[in-house]
């Protein structure tokens, strides 16, 4: 007997098969295919996976990356009349719009976001885990859905499994025990390991294991914050070199965590555990250890070697208006594309630091309301980076029950873009930010939605204050245990 989970997976895979057949038929008839994808790490990875699969089919196609499905995309589709449109990492939130504007165009939607419609148009084939009761917030990402479609097109596309994993890491789906993956994501991990492209290790969870000097990684860690070492360069180097006898350099070159021998790693782990204990910290060593995903065919000491660093690199290309670089890397380009992407990543980090400094500078830039925090990014913060800024700031509010919203203006569209993040504490209280953002934006002439933990919305500029007030009220009602309307979580 199949378990309910196995049955759901089977149904999901046969839906991916259906999408694959349509893609194959279109390519065989030499039809023109337009791919639209979302501009975050997951969306860029999804576009790379589908791009590679189409390239291998010798199909005629082009890829466009954007923030959301809107009238501009629809107008473009109506003008170009491609034989097939593929949407990756978005689309399921726009079924009504597609049905209203382009009911006769073939569209394949490879998405993991909540589904907002009950309309079934046979021209619009949707592959989405929510259709089968699989959690799209944690168990598969947009690039994962694209991967299963690509694998159904041709089993040789399993070599794209590491890219699908990178997308899932970009969407922070490593939410299971010790940052492991689950369900469909675990199948992707297994595929990648079996193909000899991935190694899953248990290791220290500090970010930057391949590209950052070991001592720097410890100096800059804020999660966990290690008193006496975090922020203290000399102390950290002494701790590593003298106490633990771990050289921090090889010749002139600083060593990264990825460069350590297994013995040195064991020494580092137990050394850190002893150190934390001596400081009276209740942090178990298990709290700083988790699964890391090593892309074994990538060069050591590059961002592509570690799944999480790879995701940050892809995200930066999307956010900095260079998604084609990220897509090229996912499709196999290295050398020049990688060099260029590293520069983009550097600029991206500078931008984020600039924004974080700006928010901290004046209290009115981050305001505390009854039930939420709100960052007034207005014309200062780039709307494409607003989500990253709210993710970083919300991580410092972990014990607060108030979700965080941030917004930036998009003057050209006379609108404001909101990005919302829920804290762990708020999540435990039953906050579903996706519902809140959808209801509050629709009541104010905008649109929005997303997951319980992360959501977005766009509203007209003159409705910003009304929208904020309604979000504050709706969150307050959820905190009191009220269910809001009907959830779209199909
Ligand atoms: Mn996604």
Number of structural units classed as domains:
3
* Overall pLDDT level: 93
Gross morphology is globular
Q: What's the total helix number? A: 17
The gist of it:
By secondary structure, this protein is of the alpha/beta class.
Task: Describe the structure using short key phrases.
binds manganese (II) ion; alpha/beta; 490 residues; inorganic pyrophosphatase (n-terminal core); Diaminopimelate Epimerase, Chain A, domain 1; five-stranded parallel sheet; single chain; globular
What does this molecule look like?
With 490 residues, the chain is an alpha/beta fold. The protein has 3 domains: 4-171 and 179-197, inorganic pyrophosphatase (n-terminal core); 202-354, no CATH class; 362-479, Diaminopimelate Epimerase, Chain A, domain 1 (Roll), CATH 3.10.310.40. It has 17 helices and 15 strands. It has helices at residues 4-28, 41-56, 71-80, 95-101, 142-153, 161-170, 184-194, 214-220, 233-243, 262-278, 307-319, 323-330, 335-361, 386-394, 424-428, 433-442, 464-479; strands spanning 32-38, 60-66, 84-88, 107-110, 124-127, 198-204, 249-250, 253-254, 289-295, 366-368, 373-378, 404-410, 415-421, 447-450, 454-460. The strands form 4 sheets. The chain has a 6-stranded mixed beta sheet, sandwiched between helices. β10 (366-368) and β11 (373-378) form a beta hairpin. α1 (4-28) crosses α5 and α2 (41-56) runs parallel beside α5 (142-153). The structure holds manganese (II) ion. Manganese (II) ion binds at residues 42, 89, 112, 141-142, 171.
């Amino acid at each position: 007997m199949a378990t309910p989970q196995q049955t759901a997976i089977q149904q999901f895979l046969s839906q991916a098969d259906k999408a694959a057949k349509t893609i194959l038929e279109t390519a065989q008839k030499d039809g023109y295919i337009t791919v639209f994808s979302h501009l975050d790490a997951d969306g860029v990875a999804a576009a790379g996976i589908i791009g590679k699969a189409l390239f291998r089919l010798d199909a005629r196609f082009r890829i466009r990356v954007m923030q959301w499905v809107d009238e501009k995309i629809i107008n473009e589709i109506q003008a170009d009349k491609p034989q097939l449109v593929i949407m990756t990492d978005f689309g399921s939130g726009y079924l009504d719009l597609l049905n209203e504007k382009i009911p006769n165009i073939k569209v394949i939607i490879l998405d993991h976001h909540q589904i907002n419609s009950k309309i079934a148009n046979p021209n619009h084939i949707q592959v989405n885990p929510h259709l089968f009761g699989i959690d799209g917030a944690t168990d598969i990402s947009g690039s994962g859905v694209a991967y299963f479609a690509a694998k159904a097109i041709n089993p040789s596309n399993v070599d794209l499994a590491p890219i699908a994993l990178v997308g899932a890491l970009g969407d922070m789906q490593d939410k299971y025990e010790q940052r492991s993956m689950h369900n469909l994501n675990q199948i992707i991990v297994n595929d990648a390991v079996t193909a000899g492209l991935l190694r899953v290790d248990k290791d220290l969870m500090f970010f930057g294991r391949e590209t950052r000097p070991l001592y720097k990684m410890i100096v800059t860690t804020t999660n966990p914050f290690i008193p006496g070492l975090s922020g203290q360069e000399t102390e950290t180097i002494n701790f590593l070199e003298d106490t633990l006898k771990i050289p921090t350099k090889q010749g002139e070159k600083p060593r990264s965590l990825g460069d350590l021998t297994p013995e040195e790693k064991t020494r580092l782990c137990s050394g850190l555990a002893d150190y934390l204990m001596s400081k009276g910290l209740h942090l178990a060593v298990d709290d700083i250890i988790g699964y890391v995903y090593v892309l074994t065919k990538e060069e050591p000491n590059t961002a592509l070697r570690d799944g999480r660093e790879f995701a940050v690199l892809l995200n930066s290309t999307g956010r900095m208006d260079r998604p084609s670089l990220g897509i090229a890397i996912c499709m196999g380009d290295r050398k020049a594309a990688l060099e260029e992407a590293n520069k983009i990543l550097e600029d991206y980090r500078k931008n984020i630091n600039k924004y974080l400094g700006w928010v901290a500078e004046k209290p009115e830039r981050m305001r505390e309301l009854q039930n939420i925090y709100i960052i007034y990014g207005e014309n200062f913060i780039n709307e494409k980076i607003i989500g990253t800024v709210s993710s970083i700031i919300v991580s410092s509010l972990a014990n607060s029950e108030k979700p965080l919203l941030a917004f930036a203006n998009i003057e050209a569209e006379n609108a404001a873009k909101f990005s919302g993040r829920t804290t762990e504490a708020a999540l435990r209280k039953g906050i579903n930010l996706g519902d809140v953002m959808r209801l509050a934006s629709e009541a104010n002439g905008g649109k929005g939605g997303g997951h319980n933990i992360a959501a977005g919305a766009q509203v007209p500029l003159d409705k910003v204050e009304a929208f904020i007030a309604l979000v504050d009220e709706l969150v307050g009602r959820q905190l009191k245990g009220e269910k809001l309307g009907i959830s779209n979580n199909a």
